[in-house]
Amino acid sequence: MKFLKTNLRCLGLTAGLTVLSTMGYSQTTLKTNYFKIVIDQKGYITSMQNITKKSNREFSPADKPSPLMVLYNAKKRVYTYPEQASYSASDKIMTLAYPNGSTARISILPQAKYFKMKLLSLTNSTDIEAIQWGSYHTNITNLLGEIIGVSRDTSKAVNYAIGMLALNDNTLGGTADIQGDAAPFQYIIHSPDAARFPLPNHLHEGQIFSLGGDGISDVAFYAHKEPYYRIMYGNAAEVDKNGRISISYQSRDRRQEREVYYSLIPNMASNKPNHLLVQPIPGVDYIGSSIAFWGSPDSTALMDVVQDIVLKEGLPHPTVNGKWIKDPAAFVPDVLTEGGQYDNMIAYADRLGFKAISLYDQAFLRPDRRNEGYIDGKNFERKPLKFANGNAYSHKEYAQMAAKHNIVIGRTPITNALAPGTKDASPVPSDSIWYQQKRPLAKAISATDTLIYVDDPTHLEEIGSWEGHVKSLNIIKIGKELIHYLGVSDTKPYRLLNVKRGYWDSKATAHAALDTLYKLQVTINYGYDGLIPNIQLQDKIAEYYADVSAINGLGYYDFDGQEFLFNNGHGYYSAKRFFRKMFERAKQHGLADIRFTGATLSEGSWHYQSIWNVGGGKNLYDAETREWGSATSQGKDLRDVSYANFFPVGMGGNFPITEKSTVAEYEHIQAMSVGTGSTYSLKLNQKQVESCPQKDAIFQAIRTWENARRANAFPRWVKEYLVDPTQSFRLEELDKDHWNLYRINRDGSGKKLLTKLTRAKGY
Fold this sequence. Notes:
Elements: E1 18-20, E2 28-31, E3 35-39, E4 44-50, E5 66-67, E6 69-73, E7 78-80, E8 84-88, E9 93-97, E10 103-110, E11 115-122, E12 130-137, E13 143-145, E14 150-153, E15 160-166, E16 171-173, E17 186-189, E18 208-209, E19 229-232, E20 237-239, E21 245-252, E22 258-262, E23 274-278, E24 290-296, H1 298-312, E25 319-320, E26 323-324, E27 334-338, H2 345-352, E28 356-358, E29 385-386, E30 392-393, H3 395-403, E31 408-411, E32 435-440, E33 475-478, E34 481-484, E35 516-520, H4 535-552, E36 554-559, H5 571-588, E37 595-598, H6 634-644, E38 649-654, H7 663-676, E39 678-685, H8 686-690, H9 695-710, H10 716-722, E40 728-735, E41 738-744, E42 752-758
Parallel strand pairs: 27-28, 27-39, 28-31, 31-36, 36-37, 38-39
Antiparallel strand pairs: 1-2, 2-3, 3-4, 4-5, 6-7, 6-12, 8-9, 9-10, 10-11, 11-24, 12-21, 13-14, 14-15, 15-24, 16-21, 17-18, 17-19, 20-21, 22-23, 25-26, 29-30, 32-35, 33-34, 33-35, 40-41, 41-42
C-alpha cells in the first residue's frame, strides 16, 4: 500500500491564468495556475509542465508529442492526425487542418485550474464517425485512472497529476476505436513502482491478459494478486511499453445506425463478441464535444481541481450529509440486511452513524412499469418487512421510520433488464425492445408453424447473449410474439432451427411474408434473465426508479447487472444518459440525491455513483488475515481501480457482527477504511447481532471512527499509518471536535498515543 502515499504539502496558489500566443502557424503556450502546455504548429502538445515548483518539471515525453484532437474513420479503422495548427488569442480558437481536407475549429478557454476545450465545427466530416481528444502522452509511470482519464504520480518527490473530464454526455472516457463505447474488461501489466514491484522477465508493460476463471463466475475473474497485474475498467488511460501513461476521451456521431462487434469481455471464449446493430439517436453528434484538461499537484487534485471543474461546468455533484460524494470525509458505510428481520436495523444504523440500509435480503427489484412505481401495491397493502413481534410494514412505512433518523432504505434492482412477466417483456412484449439483427420473413407463417425462413442468415447463428452465450435467451420477436430458436440451417432455403413458438407466455400468431424478425439483445441467466430496452424505453426505466423512490421512500439502489446499460451498443453514453434521467426525475420529485452502488464502475456512472460495494467477504477485504482479497485478487484489483480514479474504495458486503466478534476487529476495519478511503456494507443479521457480547462496544467504536472521518480529522500522514496492515489502532473521542489516536498491539495491549486529531475547518 505504500505506493498510494501522496505529498501532504498544501499548496497555496493565487488563482489566475496566462495566455501566450501569436497569430499564424507558430507555437502556442497556455497556462493555468498549476499547469503550462505548449502546442506546436502541427497541432501537437509538445510540453506539459508543473508550474507550481521552480523546477517546472516536464511531463511530455520528448519522443511522443500529443495530438490535440484526431479524427476516426470507423469503416476503415483509421485515425487521421492534424498537420497544421493556428491559435487566435483574441477569439481563443485553435484551428486544426488535417491531411484528409478536414478543418476543425476548437475553442480553448484557459480557466484558473483547467483548460476548457470544445469542438465548434468540423469540415469534410462525412467519413468521420468519431473524434478523439488526444491521446495526451505523459512520462508518468505511477497510477493510471482508466475510468476518468488521469495520470498520477503520487510520490512525495513529484506529487503531480494530469487528467481530463468530459463536459457533456456524448464525450466519453476512452479511445475512438473501442467497439460499443465500453472498453474491454481485462488485465494489463503495469507496475506502479518499478523499484518495489519489478516485472518478471517474461512480462512487459502494457501486455494484455484475459480475466481468470470460466468467464461466467464474476468472482473468478479476479485471478492475479501480483501488484503488476492491473485490472482495467476502461481505457481513458493506457500505458506504453515503457509504462508511461496516456489519457484519451472521444465523442461519436450517434445519428446513424451502425453495427458493432461487441463484448465487454472479448478475450474469453465464453464471452466472445456478437454483432449488434446500434440504434441511431437523432441530434447526438460530436460537434460540441467538450473536455476539461488539467494538471495540478496530485495531493490536492480531487478537492481543489476536479471539484472545481464539476461545480463550474455544471456536472453532476451529488452530496451525502451535505458533502460531495467524492469528498473522503463524506465516505460512509451502509447497513446490509440479512435474515429477513428488521426490528432493530434502523436503530443499528443510527447508532453506527450510517445513513443507508440496503434491504439486500429482499428479492431483486425488477423494473416493472405495470405497477407504476407502487412496489407494495397502490394502497401499500403488501408488507414485506417483518418484525419479530409479528408486525410487518410496507417499504413506505419503513422508510418513514428511517427518515426520522436521517436514514434511507434501498433495494437491489437488475438495472435495465426487462424480466419475463414484466410489462415491457411478456406476455406482450414492447415494440421498444432493442435487437442485434433484423430480417424480413421470407415466407408467411401460421400460428403453429415452426419452419421460419429468412433470406439472409448472417449473424443469426450467434447465441443472443455475449455473456456466457445463454441459449435460453436466444430469442426473436415478430410482432407481439417471442420465439425461441437455436441455430440456422447451413444451406438455402435458410431457416431457424429448434423453434419454440409463444416463448415466455407470449401469444403465437400468424405472421405475413416480409414482416420484420428481430433477433433480440438480451442479458444473462442465473436470475438476471431479461431483454434490453431501446434508448427511449431505457429513459423511461430510469425515470421509473426515481418514481419508485418518490412513492416508496427509497433513497438507495444497488444496481446489479449495471453492465447491461452497455448492451445497446452505446456504452458509457448509455450509462450517463440513464443516470442523468433518473437524477433529473428525482429532482422533479423533490428528492435528495439517490445514493447507489452497482455491479460496475464506468466513466458513465462516475459522477453519479456514490460507492462501489460489489461482492464481499474474503474476496474483498479479509479482516482476519488483513489483506485485500485472501480468497481471490478482487479486493486488490478493485482497490487499485477505485483509488487511481479518485473514487471510494469498496470492501463489499462484509464483516458480519456475530457472537464471536470483537471490538479490536472493527477498530482495524475502520482504520483501514479511513486510511484507504473506503466504504463497505456492514452485514447485519439481527439474531446474530443480538448474540454478540461486545455488540454495544463495537457500535461505539465504529461510530467514533465515523464521527472523526466526517470531521475530516485524519491528515494524510496519519492515513499512511492506518493503511499498514501490521499496525493496530484505537480511537477515543474526547468531545465532538477532538479525538486521541493510539497505536496498540494486536492483542489490545501497549497503548501509545500516536497523535491528537481535531475537526477540520469547514467540516
